[in-house]
Amino acid sequence: MRADYRELDTTKTYLITGAAGFIGFWLAKCLLATGCRVIGVDNLNDYYEVSLKQARLDSLTQTENSSLFTFLKGDIADQEFVNTIFNLYKPQIVVNLAAQAGVRYSIENPGVYIQSNIIGFFNILEACRHSYTGAQGVEHLVYASSSSVYGANKKVPFAEEDCVDHPISLYAATKKSNELMAYTYSHLYQIPATGLRFFTVYGPLGRPDMAYFSFSRKIMKGEPITVFNHGEMYRDFTYIDDIITGVVRILGNPPAKAGVRHKVYNIGNNNPEQLMYFIKTLEKALAQTTGRNIAADKLFLPMQPGDVLRTCADTAKLERDFGFKPSTSIEEGLLRFAEWFTSYYAY
Ligand SMILES: NC(=O)c1ccc[n+]([C@@H]2O[C@H](COP(=O)([O-])OP(=O)(O)OC[C@H]3O[C@@H](n4cnc5c(N)ncnc54)[C@H](O)[C@@H]3O)[C@@H](O)[C@H]2O)c1
User: Fold this and answer.
1) Cis peptide bond prior to 167, omega within 30° of 0
2) Per-10-residue mean pLDDT for the chain, 347 residues long?
3) Ligand 1 center to residue 295 CA distance, Å?
4) Residue 185 annotated in active site
5) Angle 170-189/120-130 helices, nearest 10 degrees?
6) How many domains does the chain have?
């Protein structure tokens, strides 16, 4: 992790929801390494293999500062559970990463997105609001939005001021709704809040439902991979360390007191890769870590509903306010992923 630890205030208590998830795990690991008190919450649902979520938690409980980590299994859609945590631990910094992720799954199973992403987020906002009753209250709420809010926008790179009124999946609609809800709570109750539009995050201990991960699995098993839109897709892939560095810089810098204390930032690489080049780089990384010849068997298919052709982050606002821009190349990032992947699954 290359996050700048000096940015973190170790006197605060940090609540991370989705702490057994990919990004939540790496953030918790970074905060603990710095000596911060971390309360982690996750419902450990089985959207993807629970054993990987458990492995991430095991890593957090075996880390040097594990005594600073408290894990609570529960659902943010359960208001009583959320309120109990806020009352017991009085977190000053709240990072809401718990959500039902994935664009395609929202077409099959929309209900779970409403539960976790809308009701769950509402419960977090309410708990932040009530944290001010008789106490100092939450100093900064940071929450995950997504590049998917840009929908099928044609103008690239995607900038925070662009119109995002046309989400093409329910997942995207819930993330855009989170931004609207957070804005209202900041306006009405002065809760300092920052929404982060993450762009396709990848890396070690990543998410098995994402293409780079499922491709790796299929490639290693000798099964064909499905390449949508005949490979004519472009993604701004962002390495996990860059995401964590960005989040850490933002945590201690809530929006200033003037006006509504709500801001939204893109965190992406500002360097979209063509899907076919991405696959070639993944093949190389897997070949390098296994010492074998690797060539994916590709099955070309048309575009999938809900998918977007191209994502590309305009990171000028992030650079201006936090002096930071993601920069890890996919050659470097995929190699680090492949090293972890082939070792974890013993290929
Ligand atoms: N990884 C990406 O590329 C990416 C891109 C854009 C946005 N995001 C957003 O970033 C956040 C973190 O993503 P991730 O990649 O780490 O996903 P993840 O699925 O690995 O992590 C989310 C975690 O939240 C937990 N969770 C889900 N619903 C919950 C609920 N109702 N109560 C408690 N826990 C719950 C899950 O068990 C999981 O461990 C999510 O909000 C996601 O939508 C991720």
Assistant:
1) no
2) 67 98 98 96 98 98 94 98 96 98 93 98 97 85 97 94 96 98 96 97 98 97 95 95 97 91 96 95 98 96 87 96 95 98 96
3) 31
4) no
5) 10
6) 1
207 lines ligand 1 (CB under 6 A): yes
Check if 146 has its Cβ closer than 6 Å to any atom of ligand 1: yes
- pLDDT (0 to 100) of residue 4: 56
Q: Which of 14, 105, 171, 239 is catalytic?
A: 171
CATH, residue 70: 3.40.50.720
Q: Is the CB of 149 under 6 A from ligand 1?
A: no
- Assigned token pair, 132: 């001010």
Q: Ligand 1 mean position to 243 CA, how many Å?
A: 14
Evaluate whether residue 212 is within a structural domain.
no
Domain of residue 169, residue span: 11-206+237-270+311-327
Instruction: Give residue 243's Cα distance to chain centre.
Output: 8
Task: Tell me, yes or no, whether 225 lies in a domain.
Answer: no
How far apart, in whole angstroms, are the C-alpha atoms of residue 241 and residue 131? Answer: 31
In a domain, residue 89? The reply is: yes
Which atom of ligand 1 is nearest to 171's Cα?
43
Phi/psi at 178 (nearest 5 deg)? -60, -40
How far, in Å, is the centroid of ligand 1 from the Cα of 344? 21
Residue 5: per-residue pLDDT: 62
